[in-house]
Amino acid sequence: MSGFDDHLAGGVTTLCRAWALRRADGLLRGFTDHDRALSFDGIDFRPETGMSASALVQGAGLAADTSEALGAISDSGITEAEIAQGRLDGAELRIWRVNWANPAQRALEFRGRLGEIRRDGTLFRAELRGLSDLLNRPGGRVYQKRCDAAFGDARCGFDASRPGFTETWPLARAEGGTLRFDWTEGPESGWFAQGRAEVIDGPGAGLSAPIREDRLADGARLVELWQPICADLPPGTMLRLVAGCDKRAETCRLKFDNFLNFRGFAHLPGTDWLMAVPRSGGA
């Protein structure tokens, strides 16, 4: 912030905003609402997107900082495809107030993540969520029969990459939300149901989708997704299929032999037992 306060106090200012956006896959890009490119901290900030932001609401307490970003969808900036594919969901965002005549004079104005993104014709509107928004997430555990761990995470403890539980195969054809593989060997029908399909290469590399149904039919394996992957998936695209877990104690014990790490309460009484009342009559 060297000299920035003096610049603000001088009466005549040359200010703009600069944005650094880092997606979950690590891609870092810079944008600015100035009419010329800026560069600092090793980031080039481009003006082509026409991005702007409403007034940033910030407080000294724990209430979430909020704002909204507005920008144009274009091939050189934020694209329609990456919005549809969800590649910007939860992207890390930093916003500076910058003296464009001397970018060394700047102040970090906002740090947080992108929230909900909405389309508005050829524009997009993105909610900005400050770091304090993380404090609004519910914590703790819920008493329930089914496991509350994410399959393959540290609490689950199961290595999902083990042979037989993760398979990588070339795609034969994609029809909407159904993926066809010319592969009938390996696990039985339903093995990958409630698992996930991950795209390894091609235009959709890095994208994934939950699997609704997995079955063998007509000499092929058909994998039906809950929603289509928003990317071109030409024949030959390599996909990784991860076995599904329905969170039941029986599945944890019989399919994965991982019952010692089961994170549910398998013997919790059901609602029928809780609503039962004594009745008179014969034994």
Kindly summarize this structure in a few lines.
The chain has 283 residues and is mainly β.
Walk me through the structure.
This protein is mostly beta strands and 283 residues long. The protein folds into two domains: 4-136; 166-242, Beta Barrel (Thrombin, subunit H), CATH 2.40.10. It is built from four helices and 16 strands. It has helices at residues 4-9, 80-84, 249-254, 271-274; strands at 15-22, 28-32, 38-40, 43-46, 52-53, 66-72, 92-99, 106-120, 123-130, 166-170, 173-175, 178-181, 196-199, 208-217, 220-225, 238-242. The strands form two sheets. It has a nine-stranded mixed beta sheet with strand order 3-4-2-1-7-8-9-6-5, with no helix packed on it. The termini are far apart.
Overall pLDDT level: 85
Count of helix runs: 4
Q: How many whole angstroms does the radius of gyration measure? A: 25 Å
Question: How far do the termini sit from each other?
Answer: 83 Å
Helix content: under 10%
Order of helices and strands: HEEEEEEHEEEEEEEEEEHH
What percentage of amino acids are in beta strands?
Answer: 25-35%
Categorize the overall geometry. Answer: extended
What class would the helix/strand composition place it in?
mainly beta
| Sequence of strands across the biggest β-sheet | 3-4-2-1-7-8-9-6-5
For the secondary structure, the number of strands is 16
Unreliably modeled segments: 57-62
> How many structural domains are formed by the residues?
2
Largest sheet: 9 strands, mixed
